[in-house]
Design goal:
single chain; about 140 residues; alpha+beta; five-stranded mixed beta sheet; 5 strands; about 25% strand; globular
Length: about 140
């Protein structure tokens, strides 16, 4: 479930989200509620794009999907990211932690092709680790 999150304090992404063929996960303007319960308010203008629908225990699959996504949408993303003065963007990879009493170290490697594409677009890469029972 990798998502590309794009933030700005001054630029609204709503018009872009309506005109793009890139799959949009969500879009919010600063000050809008980010959830149905109306308890989370957006601190920035934010556009989240669907990069991968792979499971959280399939980081290699998410990374492969991210390479395909960035390659396919490179020109449009470059145009958007270079046209917004105060933009910040991050590929967010949610992954399950494999740590346990038997496993004391977890290593996940980002493919060089992904690093190269993300670097050309000036993207950050985040790996959000969750315990498997976090949402029970």
């Amino acid at each position: 479930m990798c998502v590309l999150k794009i933030y700005s304090d001054t630029f609204s992404f709503k018009a872009f989200s309506e005109d793009t063929d890139i799959p949009v996960y969500s879009v919010f303007d600063k000050g809008e509620y980010r959830n149905k319960k109306q308890t989370r308010v957006a601190k920035h203008n934010v556009l989240s794009l669907d990069v991968s629908d792979r499971e959280w225990d399939d980081f290699p699959g998410q990374a492969a999907d991210a390479i395909n996504f960035l390659s396919k949408h490179y020109d449009e993303l470059l145009k958007l990211l270079s046209s917004v003065e105060d933009v910040n963007a991050c590929l967010d990879f949610p992954i399950y932690s494999r740590l346990s009493s038997e496993i004391i170290n977890q290593n996940d490697y980002i493919p060089r092709g992904l690093i190269s594409l993300a670097g050309k677009l000036n993207l950050e890469i985040g790996m959000s680790q969750y315990s498997r029972d976090a949402f029970e």
